[in-house]
Design a protein that fits this description.
The chain has about 300 residues and is an alpha+beta fold. The chain is built from six helices and 14 strands.
C-alpha cells in the first residue's frame, strides 16, 4: 500500500515535468481536511502575481502532509502550478503569535503557559473533535446562558475583557465577531451563536458587558457576552488553553477563538490574532454547511471580498 502511494506521488509530480511549472508561497487558514482524496480546503491570503484571496481546495502530492493538519491551523505552503495540474508541498503549520505584541510580554506569557500546563495537567486543553463540557454563565442581560442549550447550532467562542486598550487584542477579536454577525445576519440565533467570555469578571459585570455589546451592535438573540464568578470563568478558559493574569491594573493574556459544531464538538481552536475576519467566517461557513464540500473535496470558489 505504501509502495503504491509512493509510486502514485512520483508519477503525479513527473506529470508536471514536461509543463512550464510556477511556484508560489501561500499562507492561509485550514477549513477542512479530506485525507482520502488528498485535499485540504484553505481560506488563503492573496497570492502575489497569481490570484486574489479566496477559499479553495488544494491537492497534496504527499498524503503525509495532511496527517497533522486540522481546521483552524494557520499554514504556509508552496503551490506548484503546471499546465494542467497543480499541487501543494512544503506545508508548514505556523506557530501562533499575536501581532504588535511586546517581546517581553511574549516571553512572560510563554512562561505562564508552561506554568499553567504543569499545574493543570488533570484539566488539559480540549483536543479537536472532543465534546466541550457544559458550562453556565451570565450574559449581558443578566440571564443565565448554558452551552448545552445551543446544541444543534454552530457556536463560536472568544475571550475578551472590556478594558483592554490594545486595538489588535480584544478589540480585534470582537471586531471579528461583529463581522460574523454581519455576514451571517440571517442565521444568528437560529444556526449560529457567538459567545464572548470575559476573563475579568470582577469588573465586567452584566451592566458593563451590556454597554460593551452596544458598541458592537450585538444582536442579543445570537451574540452573548458572558461573565460569572471567577471560579466559573477560569475552568472555561482552561478548556481552550486560554491563560491570563493581572499585571499593573491590566490583564496579560493569550488569545483564543474556538468553533464548535452542531453536536458541541470542538472543530477549531485558533490561537493568536494572525487571521482575518473573512478567514474566520469561512471556517464558520464550512462548519455550518459541511455539505458544501462534495465527495471530491471540491467547493464553490468565491473571492474573499464577495461573500
Amino acid at each position: 500500500m505504501i509502495y503504491r502511494a509512493l509510486v502514485s506521488s512520483v508519477l503525479f509530480v513527473l506529470s508536471l515535468s514536461a509543463a512550464s511549472v510556477q511556484r508560489f508561497q501561500v499562507t492561509g487558514l485550514v477549513l477542512t481536511v479530506d485525507a482520502p482524496h488528498r485535499s485540504v480546503l484553505v481560506s488563503h491570503d492573496p497570492i502575489a502575481g497569481y490570484m486574489d484571496a479566496m477559499t479553495m481546495p488544494f491537492r497534496v502530492n504527499n498524503p503525509r502532509l495532511l496527517e497533522n493538519l486540522k481546521p483552524g491551523d494557520k499554514v504556509e505552503f508552496t503551490l506548484v502550478v503546471g499546465k494542467t495540474l497543480s499541487y501543494i508541498s512544503n506545508v508548514q503549520v505556523q506557530e501562533y503569535d499575536s501581532t504588535e505584541r511586546d517581546p517581553a510580554q511574549v516571553r512572560r506569557l510563554r512562561i505562564l503557559d508552561e506554568a499553567m500546563r504543569s499545574k493543570t495537567e488533570s484539566q488539559s486543553t480540549l483536543s479537536i473533535g472532543q465534546a466541550v463540557p457544559d458550562f453556565s454563565l451570565i450574559d449581558q442581560t443578566n440571564h443565565p446562558v448554558t452551552l448545552s442549550e445551543f446544541r444543534g447550532k454552530v457556536v463560536a467562542i472568544t475571550f475578551i475583557y472590556t478594558r483592554c486598550p490594545l486595538p489588535d487584542y480584544c478589540m480585534r477579536l470582537s471586531r471579528n465577531f461583529a463581522s460574523l454577525q454581519k455576514r451571517f445576519s440571517h442565521r444568528m440565533g437560529r444556526d449560529l451563536m457567538l459567545l464572548s467570555i470575559t476573563f475579568d469578571p470582577d469588573h465586567d459585570q452584566p451592566e458593563v458587558l451590556s454597554k460593551y455589546a452596544d458598541v458592537w451592535n450585538a444582536n442579543v438573540e445570537g451574540w452573548h457576552f458572558l461573565t460569572g464568578p471567577l471560579s466559573a470563568v477560569k475552568p472555561v478558559c482552561g478548556m481552550f488553553g486560554m491563560n491570563f493574569w493581572r499585571d499593573e491594573g491590566l490583564m496579560t493574556h493569550s488569545l483564543h477563538t474556538a468553533v464548535l459544531d452542531r453536536e458541541g464538538k470542538l472543530v477549531a481552536n485558533i490561537e493568536g490574532n494572525r487571521f482575518t475576519a473573512v478567514q474566520l467566517g469561512d471556517l464558520v461557513e464550512a462548519t455550518l454547511k459541511p455539505g458544501s464540500i462534495d465527495t471530491r473535496g471540491q467547493r464553490l470558489l468565491r473571492p474573499n471580498g464577495n461573500h
